[in-house]
Amino acid sequence: MQLSPTQPAVGVVIPTYNRANDLLQCLQHLERQDFRDFEVLVVDDGSTDHTRAVLERYQGSAPFPLHSFHQANAGPAAARNLAIAHLSAPVGILIGDDIFPASNFIRNHLDLHRAHPELEAVAVGFTRWSESGQSITPFMRWLDRDGVQFSYGALATGTPPGWEHFYTSNLSFKTEYLRRNPFNPAFDKAAMEDIELGYRLAREHNLQMYFLPDAIADHLHPTSFRLACRRMVHVGSAAYLFGQLWPERQLQPSRSWLKRTLVPILSEPRLILPALTLIADAATAVRCPNPLTPLVLLLHERLGYRQAAQAAQTR
After folding, report:
1. C-alpha of 100 from chain center
2. How many distinct structural domains can be found in the chain?
3. The domain containing residue 150 runs over which residues?
């Protein structure tokens, strides 16, 4: 990779929405990098908190080039596209506003791209729960361990990374690769917008994934069973859109007559699902996992899928 004298080697892209305090901590962790030749691009995705004021204050004393952009709330896919369009560095790294990189984080990502200069090389680092700033509950550990939210455990034990590991909390790429192949802004929530791009790149643009276990980032994102249920509704809606774009990956109905019958009934928000969610929430607080935890999360996902399908039929 040939750099001009004024061109940074790496650009760090951070979409942010209503997490001003977390964003500030994220930027402070970037100050501690042992590799210094990088720029940071932050896109404020229509925040209503004090994010703009934090960015304006920080920009005056930032120890690295910091570029901030503002857009009406459109989701992280559109925000990342905006930042990538303005990257001057040949290598980009995607993180979240609640991601705190270790001091050798940028260097690890850059070393991979120096060793693999091909355009299609993409590296996913290792993201784990932050041990400070939050209490890591048994439910959060289950989400992390059993691959419900991410599959870092499988990657750490030798599973080769693929498009399904295109995790934008900790991901590096050649800038030109994602300029040519941007995120789909139709995914307007933080749900499957990254996986859809990973699938598209693998299917049509020769994606080559690598895992960097030493590119460590801590994730400050306290969550609960109720919040996870809410997120699974968004995941279900995004899964419907994914299936419309890529019918070969469409969510298939269960072959079991019992499941085909029960899932729509149990996920009906006016009937059983609220009661099941209440019971599962209480059970998860006592023991996790338990049989109800994954079932109720699945029901919320199917609810989001059905709602998206019904909305599409009425348009």
Report:
1. 14
2. 2
3. 10-137+144-219
